[in-house]
Specification:
It is a single chain. It is built from 5 helices and 20 strands. The N terminus is likely disordered. The relative contact order is 0.12. The protein is α+β, with helices and mostly antiparallel strands and 414 residues long. Helix content is 16%, strand content 39%. The chain folds into 3 domains: 131 residues, Galactose-binding domain-like (Jelly Rolls); 89 residues, Porin (Beta Barrel), CATH 2.40.160; 104 residues, 60s Ribosomal Protein L30, Chain: A. Strands 9-10-11-12-13-14-15-16 form an 8-stranded antiparallel barrel. Strands 1, 3, 4, 5, 6 and 8 form a 6-stranded antiparallel sheet that branches. A 4-stranded mixed sheet has the order 17-20-18-19. The longest helix has 21 residues.
């Protein structure tokens, strides 16, 4: 009887909770520190194809446009893609590395944040020490909508990589390659890049003049596109203006200063990037030394959006100002203080290393305090400066974070 009573009580309990149906537990609260789906893949330390490494496009067979250029496979950004010409899906590209490197794995990414509808399927990788004689490394098949598909190879020492698209998924008429991977290590030191000279880029004449780490440029079109910025590590980051247009750009050159690659963008106040075009070019000769006054470039930025990417202020990761590398930026700030005596200069450190707002701001406030002290030691009046930090958590790729890891200049009323 006691057993029956217990069973009856158990049955009543089941009825009270839904006649014995299982109840799903409440879903866990979202982790505020979790990596968002739209944030691009984390770039591995041994990845040799990233914007900061300094690889360039030495040659390529074809591409749909400069926006769908072969350059897009080496920028570690799936939002940009190499698109073959229509009905011509088999294409090749030759990539020059900045140093002899030992390669251990090759691969591709075809997934988030912008997985293409007709991604590449089969890729042939070949390596070369001199750019003329190539030997097979491996032919791979990759899946659609999947990142970091990596394949081991017999270790090979190469300076040049040739990759050929042999087949694709879904569409026989076009091949799309978002990102290539080359994993390994450099075997020799890389000399600082030298950008000075006259270049033919996308059929136009570009003149660049480098003074230490400061770089000036002029694209000879009507009206001309004027550049100013700095060489940071192996690449140059530049702001540009052309008439009432404005934007940013990055450039890399090969060790012999014969090949140049890069990308320029328009800037729009409502977009991270308003995509421009890849630049791929060859050095054609010497160019006279010249400078581009930063105010001439900054003017349209300040009139249109009220701020200017001041790459000429080079801030170290710990927040200290690299005074020697920041000569052009410091001159610009001093000139602004003199030209606008009733205003203060706001310098805003853009922090974008993390997708977590609090982490960016914590790092940013610490760096801003050190930057303020550095600027005071450099002789700038602290009462005329506003040194602040701002977080960006919407930059999904290493290339976007490279361009937005900057100091933004603006004017503030007293």
């Amino acid at each position: 009887m006691r057993g029956l009573a217990a069973a009856a009580l158990f049955a009543c309990a089941l009825l009270a909770t839904g006649c014995g149906e299982s109840v799903d537990p409440a879903p866990p609260a979202p982790d505020p520190n979790a990596r968002p789906a739209g944030w691009g893949p984390v770039v591995a330390d041994d990845e040799l194809l990233t914007p900061t490494r300094g690889a360039v496009i030495a040659d390529r067979s074809g591409e749909f446009s400069y926006m769908g250029s072969a350059l897009n496979v080496i920028d570690a950004d799936n939002a940009t893609q190499w698109v073959s010409p229509p009905k011509d899906p088999v294409q090749w590209v030759v990539i020059e590395l900045p140093a002899m490197s030992r390669i251990r794995r090759v691969g591709a990414s075809t997934g988030e944040p912008y997985a293409p509808s007709s991604p590449v399927k089969t890729l042939r990788f070949e390596g070369s020490r001199d750019g003329r004689t190539f030997t097979a490394l491996r032919t791979i098949d990759v899946e659609p909508k999947k990142n970091d598909q990596l394949f081991d190879i017999e270790p090979a020492d190469v300076r040049f990589l040739r990759v050929t698209t042999l087949a694709n998924h879904d569409n026989p008429n076009v091949t799309i390659v978002p990102t290539l991977h080359l994993r390994g290590e450099e075997l020799e030191p890389v000399a600082p890049p030298s950008f000075s000279g006259r270049w033919e880029v996308n059929g136009e004449s570009l003149e660049l003049s480098q003074d230490g780490n400061t770089l000036y440029g002029a694209l000879k079109i009507d009206p001309p596109m004027l550049f100013c910025g700095v060489v940071t590590g192996r690449v140059a980051r530049l702001a540009w203006s052309r008439g009432n247009e404005k934007g940013i750009a990055w450039l890399a050159v090969n060790p012999s200063s014969a090949k140049l690659s890069g990308t320029w963008w328009w800037l729009d106040p409502n977009l991270n990037f308003y995509f421009g075009e890849a630049w791929i070019g060859d050095r054609t000769g010497e160019a006279p030394r010249f400078t581009v006054p930063i105010p001439k470039v900054a003017d349209v930025h300040l009139r249109k959006v009220g701020r200017f990417p001041l790459y000429g202020l080079v801030v170290r990761p710990d927040g200290e100002l690299d005074v020697e590398a920041s000569a052009s930026g410091l001159t610009f700030v001093r000139e602004a203080l003199a030209a606008f005596p009733t205003y203060r200069v706001r310098l805003e450190l853009v922090e974008c290393d993390s997708w977590v707002e609090a982490k960016n701001l914590e790092r940013g406030h610490a760096r801003a305090a050190k930057l303020a002290a550095s600027l005071e030691r450099a002789g700038l009046p602290k009462e005329r400066l506003l040194i602040q930090a701002r977080s960006r958590t919407d930059l999904h790729s290493v290339r976007q974070r490279l361009m937005y890891d900057q100091v933004e200049f603006s004017l503030a009323g007293n």
